[in-house]
Amino acid sequence: MEHSTIPDSSRQQTLEEKVRTLEARVAGLEGRAPEDRVALVVFSGDLDRVLAAFVIATGAAVMGQQVSMFFTFWGLSVLKKSTGLKGKSFFQKAMAVMSPGSSKTLPVSKMNYFGVGAKMLRTMMKQRNVTSLEDMIRLASELGVRMIACEMSRDVMGIQPSELQDGLECGGVATFLADSLKSRTSLFI
Amino acid sequence: MSRTFDRLLDARGLNCPMPLVNARKEIGMLEPGQVLKVMATDRGSVADFQGWAKVAKNVELLSQETETLDGASVYVHFVKRAS
User: In terms of CB atoms within 10 Å, which end of chain A has fewer, N or C?
Assistant: First the structure.
């Protein structure tokens, strides 16, 4: 038998070493395992898409997930409470005038017809007793959903922090990735 | 068969995700071991409550039934706060 030729003490030593390396590997894996988190990028400023994002966000929060929503580019319109033109460049002014002033004036992604489509969808939702986007946003923050405004796109589009709702976080790509890498689900909407 | 329950949530007429959201709030007001009865007209709530119970650690779905009330289908869910 081959085993009997190895002294007992050295066999124990190699075993202990193996256990130690395994423990280190398990600890490493545990640190990288996903947590009960969901991360969403809200890139779109379309009413229908944003609604989907908030239904998922509130649903996930109810199911015990820590939810982060990262609003960037057109998605920033969702968080706007007012539009100002002061201190903006010509292009930024043009963009401000042509962008929705708040969540209430978001267009729909299809059949918008200068806002008629969006009004129609809102009316249809009311008829079917579906929660409005504004209530959904309030609900999300009540449920502890983290809402982060992308600093870079806010700056490019010339949206002042004062034009956005109060109590928002701001951050960049690493803010999103820090959450997304620990999440079970990440979606780009 | 009718079960006993400690709290009743009438979510009839509400749509996704509100039955779930309200149920979550109500469950928070219960003591562990107590049961919440939810009445909903949202057909999706049947699968939604199953999914909720599967994922959330502190709730247990005891049973689901469908009743007909005033000519409309009512989906009844019995949810227990486990911890």
Answer: N
Q: Is B19 helix (H, G, I), strand (E, B) or coil?
A: helix
* Sign of the dihedral defined by the CA atoms of residues A133, B17, A62, B36, in that order: positive
Both A63 and A144 in one domain: the answer is yes
Helix B45-55, helix B18-28: angle, nearest 10: 40
B2 falls within a domain = no
Using CA atoms, how far residue B51 sits from A36, A144, B44, B69, in Å, is 15, 20, 11, 25
pTM of the model: 0.83
ipTM of model over 0.85: no
Strand partners for B59? B81
Positions of B annotated as catalytic residues are: 16
Q: List the CATH number of the domain containing A164.
A: 3.40.1260.10
Check A64 against B17: CB less than 8 A apart. no
Q: How many domains does chain B have?
A: 1
